[in-house]
Amino acid sequence: MTFEDLHLGSIVVSTVRNAPVLIFAAMAGLFAERSGVIDIGLEGKILASAFVSAAVAFTTQNPWYGILAGMAVSIALATLQGYVAVTQKGNQLVAGIAINIAMSGLTFVVAQYFFQQGGRTPDLGTARLPYVTLPGSAAVADVPVLGWIWTQLLGGHSILVYAAFALVPLVHWLLYHTRFGLRLRACGENPHAADAAGVSVERTRYTSMLIAGMLCSFSGAYLAIVQSGFFLRDMSAGMGYLALTAMVFGNWRPFYTFLGCLMFGFFTAVQIQLEGVDLPVVGRIPGALIQMVPYVVTVIALAGLMAKSVAPKAIGVPFVKSR
Amino acid sequence: MTTNDMPRWATGIVLPLLNLLSALLVAALAIHLLGEDPVDAMRILVNSAIVNPEGLSYTLFYASTFIFTGLAVSLAMQAGLFNIGAEGQMYFGGLGLTLAMLAFDASLPWYLLIPVGMVGAALFGALWAFIPGYLQAKRGSHIVVTTIMFNFIAASLMNFVIVKYLIPPGEQNTASRVFSDAAALPPLNAWFPALGDTPLNVSFFLSILALVIYGVFVSRSAWGYKLRATGLNKHAAHYAGVKISAMIIVTMLISGALAGLGAVNSIMGSTHYLSLNFVGGAGFVGIAIALMGRQHPVGIFLSSVLFGALIQGGFDLSLEKPNIPTETFIFIQGLIILFCGAMENLYAPVLIKLIKGKKG
Fold it and tell me: Mind listing the GO molecular function terms for this protein (chain B) (predicted)?
């Protein structure tokens, strides 16, 4: 493979296909963190919902049941996080990390128990979500540029891809233009003021965690029953942390977070494309080094070289009602 | 009445024990659901990890590594820093140690090689923790996110370095060459043959020494006082004259050095070469140990032994019970972090009532 074989078009399409895992998780994190609960447990929730949705989709041969089951388990984990953060007033970081570690072990053990394939689920085959073919695809398929845009860039994805991209303006609207969004942000910035204004900080944070759990489940479901078609041990591979960083990168705002997700999706796409390619000047870059790129970019971004991020003020602080 | 008003035996011993018990109960339930008998599993685990002398020495061998990673996380925690990067720091420490050994193991005698290896491990571990520490101190980047990123970067970078530079020509195994015999830490079974065929070595005593030094420095020295003040209230400590950013950087340097030293036991004490993924989660176990041991030297020792026993017993258990693979213990580790770290005060209200009731 040579430099000329790199196709910009396929990088763009694969960016669009890589982004949803990050978008769902990052929007989930946004709800949790904007309400004041640190959500470092995204990784564990992605993994759990990926496994459960793959397992249930395979067993029932119906991807929708898989998605529902993944949602249930992700919401359960988010509720546990909410319980630690709100009721127990415990350490939210620790709770998230505990969930990530526990799920990494448990998904393997349960997958092994049920399927005996080294912690993998069987291939989903026809139980994957179908790809959407836009009307008129056949007619424009051979037209240059337009054909590519209509069948590859806009069409030919699973419904979840469209849902992910539609989610961003929806989250923006919910956060900034509804009463619920106002209250949610108040709980993350100044819970005592919210409390004084008659908002139940506890209930708002629990609700946010429920939404976060639900959104995060799509991330795992997408990974397992759209992208790969099976569950594999630790298949989330740091996506939850990347989503979290996209959010920090995007200053806890939906559109900027979305851009962060696209950026990471792009790097993943480039990494896959660059594998084994002879580049001019630098030659062949080893895969291990390309793998590092998103993480290095993240560190540089976090070092404030791009933008100073401002976290919600009350993030990670348990709310204790003052008397 | 809050947990601060409770007697120390209650917060220091009873609560952690209740939390640990809860975690193990959930684990037992999981084992039951997997169709195995939890009591039988427990019997096998205790037998092969503690009762059997060879198993016990394996337990202590794992514990020697865990003490170092546990100390690394604990020390940072004392300053209010959540160092999740012990995994990458130990990995990098292994590289420092290996580079030192590859350079000197043919020319130096053992009494110089061992300190040189330790210095290499500590130096590289410290280096890997320095950058997140510096970024936290000077640029305000969140140490949790940066150390996580540094774990990922370390994994990729080490993969590259080992494959590209360290594999001896003609070898397929992704590992460096084996060090000369002079670079091996003396195993303890040379003096205690009853221990059997085990990698337990003198670094067990080094880890105990590290625990003692940690205990003395954190609770008895002026520096330790500043460290804890920073952890309790950064602003108050700053007002009292502690240079916070210097404190953060120095703490992360020492924390990284401790994590790096964890590689000494694993590499110089056992494998005698650097291999891909040799850390195998010891850095994450360190988080669990720091939380369960409440950053106290005795607590760190006891929880390190507990985790060593879980790993050693887990291996044997997975051989006998195919439904309980070793990954089960990653799950149990998560449970212990959840119960002992995140929900550490779960039973405090009940316990407070009990104590009050007795007095009244």
Answer: transmembrane transporter activity
Cβ contact B262:B68 at 8 Å = yes
Query: Which chain A residues have any C-beta within 8 angstroms of a chain B C-beta?
Result: 40, 84, 88-95, 97-106, 108-109, 112-113, 119, 238, 241, 244-245, 248, 286, 288-289, 291-292, 295-296, 298-299, 302-304, 308
C-alpha B184: how far from chain center: 22
pLDDT beneath 70: ranges in chain B: 1-4, 358-360
Q: Residue A99's pLDDT is what?
A: 96
pLDDT digits (tens, 9 = 90+) for B204-222: 999 999 999 999 999 999 9
- Residue A116 class from Cβ within 10 Å (0-12 exposed, 13-18 middle, 19+ buried)? exposed
pLDDT at B1: 43
To the nearest whole angstrom, how far is the Cα of B336 from the nearest Cα of chain A?
A: 8
Chain B residues with beta carbon closer than 8 angstroms to that of A292: 152-153, 156-157
Distances in whole angstroms, Cα of residue A24 to Cα of each of A42, A216, A239, A250, B152: 10, 6, 11, 14, 22
User: Quick one: which of A167, A184, A166 has its CA closest to A176?
Assistant: A184
Determine the distance from the C-alpha atom of residue B158 to the mean position of all C-alpha atoms in its chain, rounded to a whole number.
Answer: 20
Looking at chain B, which residue has its C-alpha nearest residue A92? Answer: B342
User: Which chain A residues are within 8 Å of B318, Cβ to Cβ?
Assistant: none
Take residue B316 and report the two structure tokens written for it: 């044997």
What ipTM does the predicted assembly reach?
0.91
Given a contact cutoff of 8 angstroms between Cβ atoms, the answer to whether B105 and B113 are in contact is: yes
Rounded CA gap, A110 and A100, in Å?
16
Output Rg (C-alpha) for chain A, integer angstroms.
20
CATH number at residue A167: 1.10.3470
Contact A113, B318 (CB under 8 A): no
Cβ within 8 Å, pair B153-A296: yes
What's the CA gap between B281 and B270, in Å, rounded? 17
B6, amino acid identity: M
Domain annotation covers residue A323: no
Q: What CA–CA distances, in Å, run from B25 to A2, A59, B337?
A: 57, 30, 14
How many distinct structural domains can be found in chain A? 1
Residue A320 maps to a domain: no
| Residues of chain B contacting residue A112, judged by C-beta atoms under 8 Å apart | 325, 327
B160 part of contact set with chain A, CB < 8 Å: yes
Amino acid at B45: L
Q: How far apart are CA A149 and CA A298, in angstroms?
A: 30
Element (H, E) at B348: helix B348-359
Task: Give the pLDDT of residue A71.
Answer: 98
Is A245–B139 a contact, with Cβ atoms under 8 angstroms apart? no
**Is B344 part of the contact surface with chain A (CB cutoff 8 Å)?**
yes
Render B81-108 in DSSP notation, one character per residue.
Answer: ----THHHHHHHHHHHHHHHHHHHTTTS
Which residue range is the domain that position A64 belongs to? 3-125+155-306
pTM of the model: 0.91
Contact A292 B152 (CB under 8 A): yes
Q: What is the pLDDT of residue B125?
A: 98
How far is the C-alpha of A65 from the C-alpha of A54, rounded, in Å?
A: 10
Q: Is it the case that residue A291 has pLDDT exceeding 50?
A: yes
Instruction: Say if the Cβ atoms of A88 and B34 lie within 8 Å.
Output: no
A171-202 pLDDT, tens digit each: 999 999 999 999 999 999 999 999 999 999 99
**Pair A122, A58: CB distance under 8 Å:** yes
Angle at B206 between CA B277 and CA B85, to 5 degrees: 35
